[in-house]
Automatic annotation (TrEMBL):
InterPro entries on file: Gfo/Idh/MocA-like_OxRdtase_N, Gfo/Idh/MocA_oxidoreduct, GFO_IDH_MocA-like_dom, NAD(P)-bd_dom_sf
Residues covered by the GFO/IDH/MocA-like oxidoreductase domain: 123-239
Superkingdom of this protein's organism: Bacteria
Domain Gfo/Idh/MocA-like oxidoreductase N-terminal: start-end pairs: 2-114
The name this protein goes by in its record: Gfo/Idh/MocA family oxidoreductase
Keyword Ubl conjugation in record: no
One Pfam family here: GFO_IDH_MocA_C3
Keyword line: Oxidoreductase
Coiled coil: none
Length: 318
């Protein structure tokens, strides 16, 4: 449901890679639906979600629509008893997402987010090594990424909505921080960077996570592109991932112990294929690393607190 770039370039092939076949393309724009269907070899199209959802051959839906339409499609799928994998975040506010999560739970359908950062084999390896004590007691997390602002290539329903750094980037990084550390934010503080027109093009912020772990982040769409960095630092060493947030390559992982760097070999996997595989498996048995609706609620609550910190010029307690 929806014909965005992520669906076009990644998710249709990912769904096929795990043995499922897309049957319907649903879009408000009939021309988009038809050209998407022809390009990717999907047999049926519709501008009405219910037409596709009433097909007994449909076992789950993937939602790639603009944020303003995701709630509509998720609600329709829940009412039809279809499991849902959706691009994140589900909506603009945590309140709306909570209602959607409750609706899916009431209908007994699985709801998960397409969050490739969780599916990254490097990030999963980092989280495992922290749990195993490879860097000692965790003390801090640093995330940095930047790139010039780019318009989506190819047709995209997301063109209807203006870019919002908090919803397009910060919400992903907050979820990644929770995933890597297993800890929730306690306090958040944003460095005021919002210009007079209200458009956030760069963000710098810090958080205190449970267990006195410090999380710091810098995100920008105003810089030349540079290798992203994710660093987990403990009292005995650090894990440093480069290039895992740009969506173009799997990146590298280094462990630093005793003032020496050690490259950690990590098997490359397509994050979108891993996500679909994990989602399909989760319908029958929990997949611990998968991003759930509850995770989306927490990430949105956190970026809402960041927005309040930016606006009020003070630290916000969660």
């Amino acid at each position: 449901m929806g014909t965005g770039t992520i669906a076009t370039e990644h998710m249709v092939s990912a769904i096929r890679s795990v043995g499922h076949e897309p049957l319907w393309v649903v879009s408000r724009n009939n021309d988009y639906a038809k050209s998407f269907s022809e390009d990717l070899g999907i047999p049926r199209t519709s501008t009405e979600a219910q037409q596709a959802l009433s097909d007994p051959a449909v076992s789950f839906v993937y939602v790639s629509a603009a944020r303003s339409r995701r709630g509509h499609y998720v609600s329709a799928a829940a009412a039809a008893g279809k499991h849902v994998l959706c691009d994140g975040p589900l909506a603009d506010t945590s309140r709306v997402v909570r209602a959607l999560v409750e609706r899916c739970a009431h209908s007994g359908v699985a709801l998960a987010m397409n969050q490739p950062l969780r599916a990254s084999n490097i990030h999963q390896t980092m989280g495992r090594l922290v749990i195993e004590g490879e860097i000692g007691a965790l003390r801090s997390l640093l995330i940095m990424r930047g790139a010039p602002s780019q318009s989506p290539n190819r047709r995209s329903e997301a063109l209807e909505e203006p870019a919002d750094l908090l919803l397009d980037m910060s919400v992903q990084d907050v979820d990644l921080a929770r995933f890597l550390t297993g800890r929730d934010p306690i306090e958040v503080s944003a460095l005021p960077t919002t210009p007079g027109d209200g458009r956030r093009q760069q963000m710098a912020y810090a958080m205190r996570l449970a267990g006195d772990v410090v999380f710091q982040a810098y995100e920008s769409v105003t810089t030349a592109e540079f290798d992203s960095m994710v660093m987990l630092a403990g009292d005995q060493g650090a894990l440093i991932a480069h290039g895992t947030l740009n969506g173009k390559a799997s990146g590298t992982l280094v462990r630093r112990l005793g003032a020496r760097n050690e490259l950690i070999p990590v098997r490359d996997r397509d994050a979108h294929c891993t996500t679909v595989e994990g989602f399909v498996a989760s319908i029958h048995k929990p997949t611990p690393w998968l991003c759930r609706g509850e995770d989306c609620i927490m990430a949105l609550r956190t970026v809402e607190a960041l927005a309040a910190s930016d606006r009020k010029r003070r630290t916000i307690t969660m």
